[in-house]
Amino acid sequence: MIIGCALFMELLDSTAVLTALAQIAEDFGESSVHMNLVVSLYLLAVAMFIPISGWLAERHGPRRVFVLAILLFMASSLACAASSSLLQLSLARFCQGMAGAMMVPVGQVILLRWTRKADLLRAMAFLTMPALLGPVVGPPLGGLLVTCLSWHWIFLINLPIGLLGILLILRHIPDYPGRQRQPLDLAGFLSSSLALACLVLAFESIGHGSLEWFWSCALLASGLLSGALYLRHARRRPSPLLDLSLLNIATFGIVLKGGMLFRLGSASLPFLLVLLFQVGFGLSALEAGLLTFAGGVGALLIKFISVPLVRRFGFRRILVCNAFLAGASIAVCALLREDSSALSIVLVLFAGGLSRSLQMSSMGALTYADIDTCQASKASTLSAMSVQLSMSLAVGIAALLLGLIQRLRAHETPSVGDIGLAMVLVSLLCMASGLCFRRLAGDSGTAVSR
């Protein structure tokens, strides 16, 4: 829970800031179009520095790197709040992204070293909670802070959370020493960082329409080319920065691929729900945020029964069957209408939160079921990279599908029916992930579900 709180701080900040962009633009005298730089630079920094996070944890010790990452996040949050221009805010957000890139994989390294295999499922159940609650709590909390106080408090709220996290880490988490004296693979770092940065920015620009198609395609091509160069480089090194040979471990490789497919569908839901509630139903940002909070409640409650469920049915059956249920819960959202009762909306979102949270917890534990402690840092880096790419690509896919539906139906703005059809299509991605999980052996993950 200590590590999860630090991750929650990062995810809360990254979603809450979206609600403040309009007020920040007004205070700085900038066009709202230019404010996309605040989001893009954060994503750029996260993508650039994820590849090096595992190496830093092994070199200097995970607890030390994790504490330094929180300190950098706090300092950059203070710099964000003190910014008086778009340039200052953008640079501070880039530093926030650097810190955020270290938190997720390094936090997982600590968890893998600290937790016995038999307790990994329970630990992952609580570690994945921030990934589900952050995007849900962030928008309504951000709207509340902006409305009642000012946009500065979106960043200042990180200071007490970060300070508490550091105190708890220093008190309760062992100081595992650095074990690796291998020099940094600089060529691998540069090529992998460039590939991730270009791909994430390409997907982000496609999803939000922040760049013309030519530049989005140029970023995509650059990312693919840099990725190909990294693959060529990695084959020639005995110990590459991103060790793709880990994909040969059955549980790790299957869950990583199936998890990416599942997140392509599930991570697009918040984007589509915002459009449905605000554009389709005409609700305010705060009203829409309070409705989506029901999904967060469901995500929280399932954590207390996820371990008995996996022990009863096994990882393979849970992941295969629940992939279909999670996809169905997204498709059911397409049936919601403006005259739907608040209770029916809450129940649908609550059920969806239960299903997606169970899937995330199960995938998180099974990912590392057959990973040795000495492989933890490289495995967590590779996992964080796949999550970052799939989360970025998810919004791009949802936006592309919605735009295509609008053009086919000759609608200038998306209607409730257009958004609903897009939800049905992305739900198929969640269901398709079940085909990947079917390749798991029946006894997969027994070491972490006893």
Automatic annotation (TrEMBL):
It is found in: Cell membrane. GO terms for molecular function: transmembrane transporter activity. GO terms for cellular component: plasma membrane. Gene3D superfamilies: MFS general substrate transporter like domains. The keyword Transport applies. SUPFAM superfamilies: MFS general substrate transporter (SSF103473). Coiled coil: none annotated. Residues 1-445 form the Major facilitator superfamily (MFS) profile domain. The keyword Transmembrane helix applies. InterPro entries: MFS (IPR011701), MFS_dom (IPR020846), MFS_trans_sf (IPR036259). It is a multi-pass membrane protein. The chain crosses the membrane at residues 38-58, 65-85, 91-112, 124-145, 151-174, 186-207, 213-232, 244-265, 271-302, 314-337, 343-369, 381-405, 417-437. Keywords: Cell membrane, Membrane, Transmembrane, Transmembrane helix, Transport. It holds the Pfam family MFS_1. This is MFS transporter. It comes from Stutzerimonas kirkiae. The lineage of its organism: Bacteria, Pseudomonadati, Pseudomonadota, Gammaproteobacteria, Pseudomonadales.
